[in-house]
Design brief:
The complex is a heterodimer of chains A (about 130) and B (about 400). Chain A is built from 5 helices and 3 strands; from the N terminus they run H-E-E-E-H-H-H-H. With about 130 residues, chain A is of the alpha+beta class. Chain A has one domain: Sufe protein. Chain: A. In chain A, strand 2 and strand 3 form a beta hairpin. The longest helix of chain A is centred in the C-terminal third of the chain and has 27 residues. Chain B is of the alpha/beta class and about 400 residues long. Helix content of chain B is about 40%, strand content about 15%. Chain B has 12 helices and 12 strands. Chain B is globular. Chain B starts with a strand and ends in a 15-residue tail after the last helix. Classes of the chains: A alpha+beta (about 130), B alpha/beta (about 400).
Chain lengths: ~130, ~400
């Protein structure tokens, strides 16, 4: 039964209860860590890339229900996407995919977007270094 | 699913005896206490009877009790009432960094209007040092406000000693007794307080009603202007059913106070011990012995409080946290930070406050499900690997 007074949508709760892609990737091609303990949210996102396509993504998150759900959702969304497509994933898209977030929790979706961008930047940085050597 | 309510510091269920006492005052005895005819006299009698009951429980005179809409109003009235009645005498107020927002926000408000506020620190257990209060007093000090027990960590403050200091200095002393009244003995003479805030719904009375004790001779400006109710200090037609409910709740608390405290302290200690045994990297917040009989507050390292609460809620268990992930400011509890906790431990705090309907089975149920919840959240925590993961199994 949907609960109209629940803080979160059913979809958020579903991802919170059964988060996808929890964990770390050994020898990832890119890794991003964002957030800080003062705000109570820290996200780590790992990606594995093959031929410019993200073939795997995993996360580790310290944070509230929305932080866990957005982490889970963003890892789902990037899998199978080309790097340039993944870079276009916005915090709004993550929140929408979860059927919305309460206004005070939108910053969690921002963190998810930032974690993804940071992981991709890390990957691109490595690529650059590889080319130079 | 069986629900287990463990958030009695937030609110308590109104006892059936209390509801029963209130009901006639909605319908048959609906009169306005200010009216002189029979209906009015009936209501007036009920209000005054409740006043006497409240006064008796705290060792006050009935004319020293003013009914309010709750604890927040009582605190607001005490602070603003004293501040504005003593503007010519002084402008300095002493309080603590761990007060309820009903005191802290009023202090901030008064601070913006020219009053000088001293926020005293607390030690790692949340205790205020009476010596600090003594040192903070100046010839401009008009009020000291220190809570009787803290709502988040349950630490019982040395109010009696502070009361002695305040009296010697001739400074008015207010205490927020919202978490203690009805749970541990509260006596205004023993505590040496001039003002004391009470809230009914924290001890099985109805919401929306409370009281402020004002020692005879204490001057404060009126809180509400209008009719002549509450000796013109708090105008507005009395909330008769709620006041009757407060009176009945006070009466029941007076009869059962020791027995309830003993039962709750037993469950509290069992819960604290069990959590400590079943989960590692736990910190008990608040004082180990000087604490409310119903209050458990722990920090669970590497995990965040709201996630703990949501998972407990999925198991039907209702608790609370000092993590402020849901508030706009994102800063964790000011109380836990004042105790010196690093932000991540404050975000990982979990508060269980027991009540009279809780049983040993409730505590056992928490101890059964909590370790699994913590393990699940720790498995996804990026904070854990920076520590030694092998130390941590739950």
């Amino acid at each position: 039964m949907p609960d109209p007074w629940s803080l979160y949508s059913e979809k958020v709760m579903e991802h919170f209860k059964n988060p996808r892609n929890v964990g770390e990737i050994e020898n990832p091609d890119g890794m991003g860590r964002v957030g800080n303990p003062v705000c109570g949210d820290i996200m780590e996102l790992y990606i594995k890339v093959n031929d410019g396509i993200i073939i795997d993504a995993k996360f580790k998150t310290f944070g509230c229900g929305a932080a866990i759900a957005t982490s889970s959702m963003v890892t789902e969304m990037v899998k199978g996407k080309r790097i340039e497509e993944a870079l276009k994933i916005s915090n709004k898209a993550v929140a929408e995919a979860l059927d919305g977030l309460p206004p005070v929790k939108m910053h969690c979706s921002v963190l998810a977007e930032e974690a993804l961008k940071s992981a991709i930047e890390d990957y691109l940085e490595h690529q650059k270094l590889k080319k130079q050597t | 699913m069986r629900r287990i309510y463990l958030d009695h510091a937030a609110t308590t269920p109104t006892r059936p005896e209390v509801v029963k006492a209130m009901l006639p005052y909605f319908t048959d005895a609906f009169g306005n206490p200010s009216s002189i005819y029979s209906y009015g006299r009936e209501a007036r009698g009920a209000v005054e009877e409740a006043r006497t009951k409240v006064a008796e429980l705290i060792g006050a005179r009935s004319e020293e009790i003013i009914f309010t809409s709750g604890g927040t109003e009582a605190d607001n009235y005490a602070l603003k009432g004293i501040a504005y009645a003593n503007e010519r005498k002084g402008d300095h107020i002493i309080t603590t960094s761990i007060e309820h927002h009903a005191v802290l926000e009023v202090c901030k408000f008064l601070g913006r209007r020219g009053f000088k506020i001293t926020y005293l620190p607390v030690d790692e257990y949340g205790l205020v040092a009476p010596d600090d209060v003594k040192r903070a007093i100046t010839d401009k000090t008009i009020l000291i406000s220190v809570m009787h027990a803290n709502n988040e960590v349950g630490t019982i403050e040395p109010v009696e000693e502070i009361g002695k200091i305040a009296r010697e200095a001739g400074v008015c002393f207010h205490t927020d007794a919202v978490q203690t009244l009805g749970h541990i003995p509260v006596n205004v003479d023993k505590l040496k307080v001039d003002l004391l805030a009470i809230s009914a719904h924290k001890f099985y009375g109805p919401k929306g009603v409370g009281a402020l004790y004002v020692r005879k001779g204490t001057r404060l400006v009126s809180f509400m202007h209008g009719g002549e109710q509450e000796k013109r200090r708090r105008a507005g037609t009395e909330n008769v059913p709620a006041i009757v409910g407060l009176g009945r709740a006070v009466e029941l608390a007076g009869q059962e106070i020791g027995k309830e405290a003993e039962q709750l302290a037993y469950l509290r200690d069992k819960l604290i011990k069990g959590i400590g045994e079943k989960i590692d990297h736990i910190r008990l917040n608040g004082h180990p012995t000087r604490r409310l009989p119903n209050s458990v507050n722990v920090s669970v390292d590497f995990v965040e409080g709201e996630s703990l609460l949501l998972n407990l809620d999925l198991e039907g268990i209702c608790a609370s946290t000092g993590s402020a992930c849901s508030s706009a400011i994102l800063e964790p509890s000011h109380v836990l930070l004042a105790l010196g906790l690093p932000p991540e431990q404050a975000h990982g705090s979990l508060r269980f406050t027991l009540g009279r309907e809780n049983t040993e089975a409730d505590v056992e149920r928490v101890l059964e499900v909590l370790p699994g919840i913590v393990a699940k959240l720790r498995a996804m925590s990026p904070l854990l690997k920076t520590k030694n993961r092998s130390e941590t199994n739950a």
